[in-house]
Lysozyme
Amino acid sequence: MQISETGLRLTKSFEGLRLRAYQDSTGVWTIGYGSTTNVKPRQVITQQQADERLRVDMATAEHAVNIGVRVVLTQNQFDALLDFAFNEGIGSFLHSTLRELVNEGKFAEAALEFSKWTKAGGKVLEGLVKRRAAEAALFTSPVKQEQNEHTHHP
């Protein structure tokens, strides 16, 4: 499976676009749409480079969700898990109770797990509270018929 336009909009809306390198709330150098790979202080990139970085970062997260989930997902469930894995990190996703519950087919319980991931640097961040709520809402929302053609079949 791959991210849909809905999922991409969700990630972009929470990451925001920054063409100049900055340190995130935990001090990690970041640029573009939340990219942390090989970012240097004072680095500047173009919109095109930001889009390319996002595609590469998303492909890595897509791979992790595709190999980490062993049950059939809707596009919305996939997109929500992908945004989570992108934001929290692949290792966090792969070792999470969220992923375990998804693989057990306990989707209602899994949806409640998003809200447990709202801290950065030991502090609850309002932005993460909102992001996790948006992911949970997407995860539990019905899929439009045209999206159903892209369900995940392990």
